Amino acid sequence: MDFYTLSYVESLAVGGQTWGFIILVTVLLALLVLGVQVLRNGLTSRYRDLMVILLLIVVFFLGLEYQEYNRMKTYSEDSSRMAQFLHSFSTEQPVPSAQLAVNSLKIRNGMILKVNDIYYEVQFNPEFSTYTITRVYKVSPTDRIHDKADVLP
Fold it and tell me: Which residues neighbour 107 within 8 Å (Cβ) at sequence distance 6 or greater?
């Protein structure tokens, strides 16, 4: 079973955005150059078709970036809720936050909380404002702990 520490949840960074940004900037620069050529040669030139194609590529990339923005916004909200829950549990119980790990990256009913080598099932109320914990026991003895060092730079 995979478990994630508090430092892992807090350190997840947005990755893979740089290549999309570089491609979008390159296409925008090419669009600017073609725009100058169209203004210089008029709308009947061959550059007009290339400009339309590049405009469609820009619209496509803007759609992808908007979709990625919404995904990362949702992911950020989920990870901040999880970090808040782990901090709250750490202060309510006499447990250092370094000893906590969960099997989910977002808060959900039935998730497993690992405190040292003791496992708890966490149940939340419908508003996710209160929780109850019940001790549970695992069938398989192996755990994979994901920590801050596992996050790609």
Answer: 78, 81, 82, 85, 124, 128
Q: Rounding to the nearest 10 degrees, give the CA dihedral for residues 104, 106, 108, 112.
A: 30
Residue 120: which of 129, 108, 111 has the closest Cα? 111
Which pLDDT score, from 0 to 100, does residue 58 have?
Answer: 81
DSSP β-ladder status, 144-146 and 2-5: parallel
The tens digit of pLDDT for each residue in 81-101 reads 888 888 889 999 888 888 898
| SS (HEC) of 41-106 | HCCCCCHHHHHHHHHHHHHHHHHHHHHHHHHHHHHHHHHHHHHHHHHHHHHHCCCCHHHEEECCCC
